[in-house]
Amino acid sequence: MAEPKTIVNPLFLREDDLRQAIELLFFAYRDFTARGDAILARQQFGRAHHRILYFVGRYPGIPVGDLLDILNITKQSLSRVLSQLVREEFVSQKPGTRDRRQRLLYLTDKGKALERELTSEQRMRFAAAYKDAGAVAVEGFRKVMLGIMDAKARKRFLSPFET
Amino acid sequence: MAEPKTIVNPLFLREDDLRQAIELLFFAYRDFTARGDAILARQQFGRAHHRILYFVGRYPGIPVGDLLDILNITKQSLSRVLSQLVREEFVSQKPGTRDRRQRLLYLTDKGKALERELTSEQRMRFAAAYKDAGAVAVEGFRKVMLGIMDAKARKRFLSPFET
DNA sequence: CAATTATGTCAACACTGCTGACATAACGGT
DNA sequence: ACCGTTATGTCAGCAGTGTTGACATAATTG
After folding, report:
1. What are B68-77's contacts with CB under 8 Å, separation 24+?
2. Per-residue pLDDT of chain B (163 residues; tens, 9 = 90+)
3. B44-158: in CATH 1.10.1740.10
4. Rounded to the nearest 5 degrees, what angle is found at the Cα of A125, between the Cα atoms of A121 and A127?
5. Chain A 36-75, residues with CB within 8 Å of chain B CB atoms
6. Chain A interface includes B146 (CB < 8 A)
7. Which residues, in sequence order, are CB contacts of A73 under 8 Å at separation 6+?
8. Is the CB of A120 under 7 A from strand C?
9. pLDDT tens per residue, range B18-54
10. Contact by Cβ (8 Å): B41, B34
11. Mean pLDDT over residues A138-142, rounded?
12. Which CATH number fits domain A24-158: 1.10.3210.10, 3.40.50.2300, 3.40.50.300, 1.10.10.10?
């Protein structure tokens, strides 16, 4: 029943699909981040704090420079937020052994607790969505998202990872 | 070959899938919005301007209140950005006919041009990603994104739409 | 030893969201 | 006709986050 339309005007449908895609991503991201933002607001933190907690938790001992690459922000932007997290003992620093200029980042227990609180809601959201959508859909989601991100990020994503 | 692991510790794998899902969404959104942000910076605009241009273009004649519902922000936040767009003639306003309190919003030609410039890159991104991923993957992406967004947004998305 | 690298800091600016308070005009019902 | 509600707008202040530019320190490297 989409047949005739497709034949008559394939371009219109295509445009409509793309518009819908943009909106799917927009609304999903909007709602995906909303709850976390509310939790963060309690301690005068923002989404940037969550991102740092997340990736430091993901790669314990990550050097500052690698974190900058992941977040794609300037060191000044990172520094403001990271120093807060260090000062308030959510994140700890340790000089690198190989290269003592580096400051390797770790979550403290306090940081782990907050990270867990923030991320668990997001995990539950995906768990529910994945369950409803099914394995085939999940694989499709994965493919499309990889296609949307820049080649550099896609590469890092697909490689065994290095940090 | 994933079999033994799945049997031994299904929960670990599941956690890993969820973590990956979060990162897929994060990196895809980050890169999806980056180019547009750069274009907007030219005229001292930000992502908020794009969102307004996008949804006014999508629903010509949309009243301010409906736009607020879509964006999920306060009228004060919207007002600052919207007034700029009106003042600089990217958006025009017209009193509603049914309800003359309403200000119905439309893109001017200038607004249409900017919106097109901003959104076309995003459409191309999805066009490429959709093409690479294939129709089945696209349907999967759609399902997962609908599952991630709040019920309210999902409902609006699936209904024939009303504005 | 000199150049480079990893990291940090101070300062200023811009965008975007929030809350609170107040204002105007139109709608709707009694 | 009047009054409460609704749609919209505006002023003001605060907080978070990103940017650029400039400068500083310590460690690595050739």
Report:
1. B72/A30, B72/A34, B77/B48
2. 334 444 444 445 588 999 999 999 999 999 999 999 999 999 999 999 999 999 999 999 999 999 999 999 999 999 999 999 999 999 999 999 999 999 999 999 999 999 999 999 999 999 999 999 999 999 999 999 999 999 999 998 887 555 4
3. no
4. 110
5. 51, 54, 58, 72
6. yes
7. none
8. no
9. 999 999 999 999 999 999 999 999 999 999 999 999 9
10. no
11. 96
12. 1.10.10.10
**How do strand B91-95 and strand A91-95 relate by DSSP bridges?**
unpaired
Check if residue A65 sits with its Cβ under 7 angstroms from strand C. Answer: yes
**Edge-to-edge strand list for the sheet holding A103-107:** A62-63, A103-107, A91-95
**What DSSP string runs through B94-162?**
EE-SS-TT-EEEEE-HHHHHHHHHHHHHHHHHHHHHHHHH-HHHHHHHHHHHHHHS-HHHHHHHHS---
As a residue count, chain A comes to: 163
Do the beta carbons of residue A22 and residue B119 sit within 8 Å? yes
> 3-state DSSP call for residue A63?
strand
Instruction: Give the SS3 label for residue B91.
Output: strand
CA A118 to C1' D20 (Å) is 32
Which residues of chain A have a CB within 8 Å of the CB of B132? Answer: 143, 147
DSSP-derived pairing of the beta strands A91-95 and A103-107: antiparallel
Q: Does A145 touch chain B (CB under 8 A)?
A: yes
> Best interface-test mutation with A: which of B11, B19, B26 has the largest number of A CBs within 10 A?
B26
> What b/e string do you get for B89-114 counting C-beta neighbours within 10 Å, with b at 16 or more?
ebbbeeeeeeeeebbbbbbeeebbeb
